């Protein structure tokens, strides 16, 4: 089964307007489509990121997912950037806190972590 690339990553948020603002205005991801599903009382927002997508969902009453200490399962979502310092400055300008920049001991690349409005761990990784 030859897989080609990641098509999408799905994220369930607790506050749809707040999460939509974060992903579109703070992270600057362009909207592909936005759909309200009345039967589920749920929004689905498709966002472009390179050749892939982030699907942002709202599901009323969805349980919180533990992140810290690190739980089993998907650890974090990483975004590649050309200039990590500029990307961090953009996040700080929007009031988003970042961890201190570290260097990947295997690749020598710089990276940092931050969180979305629901505490989902996100990473900036300098290419």
TrEMBL record:
Q: What is this protein called?
A: Putative lyase
Q: One Pfam match, by short name?
A: Glyoxalase
Query: Looking at the keywords, is Metal-binding present?
Result: yes
Q: Which residues form the VOC domain?
A: 5-127
Molecular function terms from GO: lyase activity; metal ion binding; methylmalonyl-CoA epimerase activity
- Its domain of life? Bacteria
* Keyword annotations from UniProtKB, A to Z: Lyase, Metal-binding
**Any one of the GO BP annotations:** L-methylmalonyl-CoA metabolic process
Cross-referenced NCBIfam families: PRK11478.1 (NF008551)
Q: Give the SUPFAM superfamilies listed for this entry.
A: Glyoxalase/Bleomycin resistance protein/Dihydroxybiphenyl dioxygenase (SSF54593)
